[in-house]
Amino acid sequence: MQQQHEGYKNLADSLKSASGLLNLERKSQLHQDIITICNHLVNPSFRIAVFGPFNHGKSTLLNAMLGNRTLPIDLIPTTGASITVKYGSDVRTRIMLVDGTEVYRSGTEILQQFAILDGNRQMRKDVASVEVFCPHPFLETGVEFLDLPGTNDRDEQDNLVREQLLSADLVIQLLDARKLMTLGERENLRDWLLDRGIKTVIFVANFLNLLEPDEQKQVQNRLLFVAESFRAELPPGFSNLYRVDALPALRARLKGDVAAANSSGLAAFETALQNIVGILQPDRGSVRLPRVQAIASQIQLSLKAKIDPIALEIKSFDDKQNSKIEIKQKAANLIYKGFTTSIEELRDWLALSKLLTKYQADAAVALAENKFKDWQTNTLKKDVNKLQLTAVKWLYQAYEFFQEERPQDLLIPFPSEPQVILPPKPNNTDDLSEPGSIAVGGGIGWLLGGPVGAAVVGSISYLLNKNIQKQDEQLAKESYHQEVAKLCITASEDYFSSFSSQGLSILAEYERRSEKVICFVEFNQEPLEINKKRESLQQLQNGFNLLLQELEKVKILSNHQPYKEIPKYTNTNRKYSPQPERVKISPEKDPVVKQQPENTVKNSGTRVESVSPPPKASPSPRKEEVEAKFRDWELNEEIARMKAEMQSPGSQTGKQQNTTQSNKAPSQPKSQTEKDKITRAYGILGLQTYASQAEIKQAYRTLVKKWHPDLFVNQPQLLKQAQEKMHLVNDAYTILSDK
Known about the structure:
two-stranded antiparallel ribbon; 23 helices; alpha/beta; 9-stranded mixed beta sheet
């Protein structure tokens, strides 16, 4: 019992705490109901309220049961206050005034001063409570009677009655048999009792003795219908309808006339009442908790009405902040991906073996023809600048997006022009019969001039394409122009070795410095207004969850789920630097890298991997190249879109907006011509009418990868078909993207 009492006390405390969170006005109905039910929860007494419209004989019935004219009764509504009748060794009255004054008198005469209506039928406003003590054995069992003011008279009285009914464990609703269950009584039964979880109700019909016998039969039938239609929660075997002629019963009790008391119905009613109380009293919780559940439901709904808008506002703020961070993170990752890809391409290009494979033959020829500077400017510098600019472009994208550290330009310097020291020139320079002496270039060599110079150029190509090791075994000596060609090859190799080594070193340092550019600081600084709302939300949710827990402890089920604890917002700044896995470029996928043969040439003890010079005519792009171009286009498009989102004031950024925009169906066109154009566009992309923007974009990507004209450079018929197809696809995509 002590544990149960403690549980009810905790529940009452949580109800009061929740009420405080709602900031209810003290005079509001919900606030009054909460105070009433909380006080009633911990009240050890079993309270019986007598309830009904004025002049229905409530005080008369109570006096008859107590066996004394204790309470004021008259022909006009007299009970101007809620009078609690408790056990006492003698009859006495205690009046508590609003200002805290206590008026304590023997007997009940003082009720005429404080507990009846004045001449204007108004209740006294200075009375807080009225208690009457009586030496009755039924009261001695811990039972209290509550004599309520009559209803349907004044709003002030009705409000008091409605409030006090919550504190009753059992309600006796007095009915006037002469005008049974008026509209007002039916409304009160529904609004004041049923809807508030008060179902332990007993109906008592008064004044039945004033009706003719035939009328009594008709009223009895109507009373049975009323009683059966109201599903009272009383112990099994007990009726919820009794007849008591209150005034004859009081007179019989005052005279000690047992037979008259029995005929008035009082004895039968008292016996049933005492038995019902005997069953309900030990388990008062089963009676009180339904009322608590009704009040708690109102509190929970009121709390949710406060919690949900604040939670939505905070979630909107958090989503917006997270969206900005997510956009920046995604942009940083995309930029880093593009940057590392371009760096890897440049690093792969700077590899000595790749440089020798691609450029050594032309560089040695240019050296032999005294055109090295022109070749360096028009070929090598042009290629390296293109690769450098591609890498730098990504860093400037990052700087424009994040405004962290301004990037430096990537500059890979060229080594000094190779110098070739000629060997002594032999006397006989006309012998051009040995292998490799056929000129492949038309220039006159700056080294020897005439046919011998052309032979040097031819020997360069020859030496880089033949296995000179076997030849060395067969030839006793080399021709002069072959010796000079090998010097040019060795000089170009030294040049590229220096260029590669210095370039890779500069590139590594440049990549390290890029970390300060491709990064941003996540500023977690919450506005004071949002911070206060977050604290308020936490208090409201804690109060809601605590109430839910206390209700569960007393076996009151709820349709609501507890709120999850919201994460605390910390005003901290964190630096974000993307570190995705480095992109590796495999030789098979690099359109520049060629398959290397096993041929090598020994030049001053240095092993040089060599291949034939690349053909002058450009081959048709492979599918991988088109994919790479398209991925680069997608990266730039994605970053541009995110940049626009970040700069759009007041817009819903991030994933939420993306989803909304992507899934939004195009708006209806106004003219039939526009409708037909849009329908054709959907058909060209192979889509159903009114597909989402995401589906449109995906279909466009698929078709571009399939019909890109670069894939059909060497197939004239298919090239023309691809160009026509791409024209239609681009037009369709433009039409549907503008919707």
